[in-house]
Design goal:
767 residues; alpha+beta; Aminopeptidase; 3 domains; seven-stranded mixed sheet
Amino acid sequence: MRKFIALLILLLATYWTFRSEMPQSYSGSDTPDNQFSTERALIHVKAISKDQHYVGSEGHAQVRAYIVSELEKLGLQPEIQKGYTLDRWGGLAKPINILARIQGSNPGKALMLLTHYDSAPHSKSYGASDAGSGVATILEGVRAFLSEGKEPKNDIIVMLSDSEEIGLNGAELFCKQHDRADDVGLVLNFEARGSGGPSYMLMETNGGNKALIKGFKDAKPPYPVSNSLAYSIYKMLPNDTDLTVFREERDIDGFNFAFIDDHYDYHTSNDTYKNLDRNTLEHQGSYLMSMLPHFANSDLSELNVAEGEDDVYFNTPLGFFNYPFSWVLPMVIIAFVMLIGLIAYGVREKRMVRREIAKGFIPFLASLLISGLLAHFGWQLLLKLYPGYGEIQHGFTYNGHVYIGFVAMLSMAICFWWYRRFKSEQHLSSYLVAPLFIWILLNLAFALYLQGGGFFIIPVFFGLISLFVLIRQKEPSIVALALLAIPAILIVAPFIKVLPVGLGLKMLALTATFSVLLFGSLLPILGSIRRKGLFVVLLSFVSLFLFGRAHFTSSFNKERQKPNSLVYQYDMNTDKAYWLSYDKELDSWTKNFLGDDPRSAGDMNLNAAYSKYGSGYRYATEAPAKAIPKPKIEVTKDTLVADKRHIELCIAPQRHVNRVEVFASKSSLFYTLTVNGVAIEKDEEEEFVLNRRWRNKVLSYYFTDQEPLELKMEVPTDQKTELQVLEASFDLLENELFTVPKRPANMIPKPFIMNDAIIMVKDLVIE
């Protein structure tokens, strides 16, 4: 009975860990005016996500007009900021930012509420989560704040930025050109990388995080979900947000609040009002309604006083905890010394046996190794068995959560199998040394290379207390041991799920690793079970059930649509046209154009085929040439000044286009290069601009209106300048020159590539 109670405690702790991460209900329209209402916020989400609203689309202008109207209803005076910017990836755009100001009583630093209102291009995303949810959170939160009628101490700047999806251009425009950029002391940015799940707080700071963490805790958000390891990983990934620009350009600190679950909806046409998790939106609102009044009345100039000082931080259902980075290594050393001391004490008291301590490493390391390898290579095998998974470029399938459960259960079954063979219940104290030692080694690695993960030492200390209890008592209370194991569950269990959700199912090996590590922390309870074979069978059955469920949900249907791609590309140099696709497997819709036996696309126009995930054209089939209006490409000036040749080039589309790309051969050099009045900067030690350009790319120009692209360049006098111009519109399915049917209900446009596009390519040589 006591073992049953102990197991029940572990199960309840696990349930509590995940359930407490976010609200389990959401506020209705009858919520008091001075409180955030998810129902009221959803009205904004619905209006914003009626249609796709990427930069330059008709829906883009409509969403902008809606936001301006809603700000005016709040009694604010919206300001429009518009101008050309060139982002760090060579993207030229003319973002249209929407700003409003709530005046404070003090002339100090201002608090900025930030999100973006443009949706992702190419994939017909409706942008309900990314970032309609952010716009709705801010509009509803500001309404509730203003209903109090209280004047804040700090100015509050509301910024709905533009062109975030194509290169953070709106944030760049504000930081470099707005006269109030220097006034901002802190930014609260609301983002999404999925359509559900808890919202994670991720900080952006050039200095230490100590003051930011203190401010975050003082604001008392009801569901704080964050840890310093997550941000350490986030900083290593190519997933910048608008807030990154504020940090890099203006040294302005801030908080990102972003949810990442249901990742398969990210940047797809499934990012809809219907699919946005209401409880997730409630979570975003809970952050804003705690942060806004706190930081609107705080001295924001104090946030940078702790520059260089960092804290480890993490959340549990018991609260949000932090301590200095300087504690991390000493805590590891203390834990190691305690372990050595307990081993010596246990051996002296004849409660531990050296031989059994050594044997205890076999089941634990074997479980770690086998589970990790099975998860890693198993996923590679699954990609071959279910090739459709490869079409989901960001790596999280519709049944991804089932695979996480499958790997976790299988890993636990492997642990029970190994510990059953070694009869761990007879030498619990001796066998507990191995997981504690491995945990300490892991924490040492964190202390030396990734201090943000230093909080994993906390379960180790509770494990050491359990080891002491096992040594001291011949019949220790298993219920007491279960209570001592709760911190391990609260801290470790979330990582079993969140790592493959955030990083993709290629990281299932981390699910297996953390499952085994957690099992090791729970060894005083799980290792004491005599009928481990029963748990092997039970967990194996559950894992097989989950694998079966994953199998029967592996195909595509109306709820789990297959991402696919189709591009029409016309080569103005050869007067030839092609149907092209990025897809690894063609389907009934793409075969209508590429046929049953298309040729490999090979290296056909690698410039056009670039994508975030490195995918290129897979298949190509010749297509009939269409009477598409060709762009007017004209050299308007070509003169020699001193030892440099000055060339001005105008590229004027003769149809409605969304994007123009310009590429230059490696042999083409530029002393200076200016596009639509914006000079491309060069490194001080470099003689030429773009001397280290990647894939020959000079720039991408995204059209807000149909203004031509004008380039001014200085090149060597004897140079043969070789350029390629690529003009693209995203209207393949709507263009009257084509008869491309709509996709069936079980298909969606593939994101992260130039999709559903009509592309014109022209080579240009200026001799």
